[in-house]
Amino acid sequence: MSLNAYLKEMVASPVRTLTDEKIKEYGQDILLRAKATKGINKKTSLKLARLSENGFEKLTKEHELDALVTPRYDVSPFLAIGGFPGISVPAGYDNKGIPFGICFGGLKGFEPKLIEIACSFEQATKIRKPPSFKP
């Protein structure tokens, strides 16, 4: 399913396509390329499902893990393609003051647990600073 097809099916969202979000204004090259695709074909989708079941899902269930934790957001594409929830929160700042995050990912249906973990991390670390918008 393509992202535009997904957005079109949303019941409560005013956004129906990627261009509704004015992505050209913000230089979202990746989203523009995504808009041009037709989504994942059935063969690839089945292969991804099999890999997820025999990999991430199996590992998480066998070891009774609440979440996969990774620095930054590099695991986000894996989570998204597999249909798994993920949440990223601020984790620190580099030597130039640029923020970086930590990503918590989990199994389908684990969204409440991930939100709880992410919220607890934020409250424990108090890393997040309100953003300043500089042109």
Structure description:
The protein is α+β, with helices and mostly antiparallel strands and 135 residues long. Helices cover 42% and strands 14% of the residues. The chain has five helices and three strands; from the N terminus they run αααβαββα. The protein has a three-stranded antiparallel beta sheet. β2 and β3 form a beta hairpin. The longest helix is centred in the middle third of the chain and has 21 residues. The mean pLDDT is 80.
Topology:
Layout: H1 3-9, H2 29-35, H3 42-62, E1 68-71, H4 76-82, E2 86-93, E3 99-105, H5 111-125
Give the % helix: 40-55%
Count up the helices.
5
**Mean pLDDT across every amino acid position:** 80
Strand content: 5-15%
Sheet with the most strands: spatial strand order: 1-3-2
The first-to-last residue Cα distance is 36 Å
The value of Rg in angstroms is 17 Å
Structural class: alpha+beta
Total number of β-strand segments?
3
Shape: globular
Sheet with the most strands, sense and barrel status: 3 strands, antiparallel
Query: Would you list the SSEs in sequence order as H and E?
Result: HHHEHEEH
Low-confidence stretches: none
